[in-house]
Design brief:
Blueprint lengths: L11 H7 L2 H10 L3 H13 L6 H13 L4 H9 L6 H10 L2 H9 L1 H4 L7 H11 L6 H12 L6 H13 L3 H9 L6 H13 L3 H13 L6 H13 L3 H14 L5 H13 L3 H10 L5 H13 L3 H14 L5 H7 L9 H14 L5 H13 L3 H10 L5 H13 L3 H13 L6 H14 L2 H13 L6 H13 L3 H10 L5 H13 L3 H13 L6 H14 L2 H13 L7 H13 L3 H10 L6 H14 L2 H14 L5 H12 L3 H14 L8 E6 L2 E6 L8 H17 L15 H5 L6 H12 L6 E5 L5 H14 L3 E4 L4 E5 L2 E2 L6
Parallel strand pairs: 3-4
Antiparallel strand pairs: 1-2, 1-3, 4-5, 5-6
Helix pairs in contact: 2-4, 4-5, 4-6, 5-6, 6-7, 6-9, 7-9, 9-10, 9-11, 11-12, 11-13, 12-13, 13-14, 13-15, 14-15, 15-16, 15-17, 16-17, 17-18, 17-19, 18-19, 19-20, 19-21, 21-23, 23-24, 23-25, 24-25, 25-26, 25-27, 26-27, 27-28, 27-29, 29-30, 29-31, 30-31, 31-32, 31-33, 32-33, 33-34, 33-35, ...
The chain binds one DNA strand through helix 9, helix 11, helix 13, helix 15 and helix 17.
Amino acid sequence: MLWRSPSYLSSAATSLCLRRRSFYLDLISGASTLRHLDQILAHAILSGRHPDLVTTTKLLHRLADLGSPPTHLLRLFSSVPRPDLFLLNVLLRSLPPSSALLFLSSLRRAHPHLRPDSFTYAFAASATASLLSPAPGRALHARVIIDGFATDPFVGSALTDFYLNFSQVSAAEKVFDGVPDPDTVLWNTLISGLVQNCAFLRSLRVFKQMVMTGARFDSTTLAVVLPAAAELQELIVGMTVHCLGMKSGLAFHSHVVTGFISLYSKCGEIPAAKFLFEQIDEPDLIACNAMISGYSSNGLVGSSVDVFRELLAFRGRPNSSTMVGLIPVSSPFEHESLSRSIHSFAIKSGLYLNSPVSTAFTTVYCRLNDMEAARKVFDAMPEKSMASWNAMISGYAQNGLTEMAISLFREMQDLNVRPNQITVTSTLSACAQLGALTLGKWVHQIITQEDLELNVYVLTALIDMYAKCGSIMEARRIFDGMVEKNVVSWNAMILGYGLHGQGLEALKLFKEMLNARIAPTGVTFLSVLYACSHGGLVEEGRAAFWSMTCDHGIKPGPEHYACMVDLLGRAGQLKEALEFIETVPESAGPGVWGALLGACMKHKETSLARLASEKLFELEPENTSYYVLLSNIYSANRNYPEAAMVRQQDAKSRKLPKTPGCTLIEIRDEVHIFTSGDRSHPQSVLIYSMLDKLTGKMVEAGYRAETDVALYDVEEEEKEHMVKVHSEKLAIVFGLISTEPGSEIRIIKNLRVCLDCHAATKFISRITQRLIIVRDATRFHHFKDGACSCGDFW
DNA sequence: GTAGGGTTAG
């Protein structure tokens, strides 16, 4: 270096040197502080040399690098009598995004001789990518098109990046398509941005297209496409990329190797990941993190800790990602104490309580069903990431706290935090559990508005939501539109038909699935059995059960046995059901006996009911719902002393209050909830007078209230009321008076619909000529013209 | 102008 101290500048020799441009340039690039630069500039001017365009450009560059405020840069620029395009571009690149764009907008007035080129627009476009609003970027895009730069790969890349930063995937693709000869960087920008927007399928498609068109790919390309393959667990695609990498020699680039380690770990190929990791001479922090998380997520917590120790011993400090990878999210129960101790370590160190670490802990606590701890971690996060919102929402949905999940999603919308596929998938699951069709439709609308990629997860969640919220046709429409279906999608659709009592449709779809060579899983058979059971298809169900073990080698679990007992029991084959239980290899669980008890209920089989109840009391002494069932069976047979005794036992054992039966109906986006005998509704006078009129007409048509008949597992409080004012009847009547004649009525009951309401609804559907869809605790009933879709197999 | 690891889902 020419000089070390500012005092050196005062020497005459330096003055002479400064007259020569190259020395001057060297001095500028060597300056290490703003003060140095000031002194150089002052000296130059004193020595009679005014900086020319080249030196000013250099100076501007250096000033920006050393953190000079934007006002200084602008002042320097305006001191130049006739700035050229190069200087303008350097200025634009050096200014903070908003000042750069502001400056550009005044350019035409201030410097009419300067015609922006592709660099100008590229820098400007990349400035728009980091703003809070997309509006300036869109305006710039318009100018780019007018000025004819939309076909330039440099500009296109910056614009593509801009749109992807604002999650406008389609717009980004449009920009890309407008560039006839995309270069490697432009391809990479699109692929990487798609991955960041969770559009993994699209990114793989673009990569394929890139390779097919013969475009040159580089290590960045491979590094950005690998996470997409890993995320989708597309091992074959990943291995193809590996082959491409080997052939081109790019597979040994450190970023790419890390990508492979992560890919193989995520696909469960730990030996391959381990092999690659051990091939690296000196793995860096990121490679170690990939391996740590790979082991941990595959349940190999010991090996994960080994690599962590190695990292501490030889490669220095771990970072927050190391911690995230180390937490055994995949098996929290097994390593609960380890997770909690990592958490307290993280809190103590303070350094690690950033968003990804907190998100991992949120997840762990959700999995441990410790929702309060999870929420505490979530609330303590100053900056919430997409993943942290998703972790909390899915945690609520999976723990059945559906309202919490939905209200958190609402909060996100209110805060203008844009959801991604995972957010909507979790929220849809909550809507499905709740049976909230209007909410579900709203989420569907948001998916469309946000242009979220419709991947298998999202579409399957939509099928599930529509099916569980009563729109089986809409579910089927989405199912048919799916290009790529997997087992879960088929399962969701089959289960949907089962819920709606369309057993034959379910079986037809199951056959189609087998023809399409999709290997069924235990869940598939559970859905098929369920559909048979709710459609009264006993023989078909039996055949499916045997085919499961014989043809597909799937060992039936307790839930399959329970479903079979339910199937036989509903159809009145109680003896066969009991015989079937005796074939259960291990002792039958509560599910199996519960199913038998439910069947006894329907067929008023007191002695068998007693047997089943005794088994249940033995297996689950704390579960109170069986007492209700048994007592109802006795009262159905008019054996009131026994009924009273059971009820007394029940009262003794009961600790928690019962959930009262209630029915929900949505009218024009508003939710109305009715309980039995409810008079709290503002229109309750009208509702009751309508109900009276309707009951009159029903009686005329032959309806008799079945007050002394056993009510399913309805609760005591509800039973004490006249069945006439059951919550479902109130909700139906409210539906009748609040909607157009002829339109369908949908209600949701939290318990199983009672026999009397079931019969009454049939009459109502005929008298009013309405389709009434009732979702109860176990299935859907479509009442139409005096009949129910369940064919009374409910 | 693009760049590897970590969190979230049916």
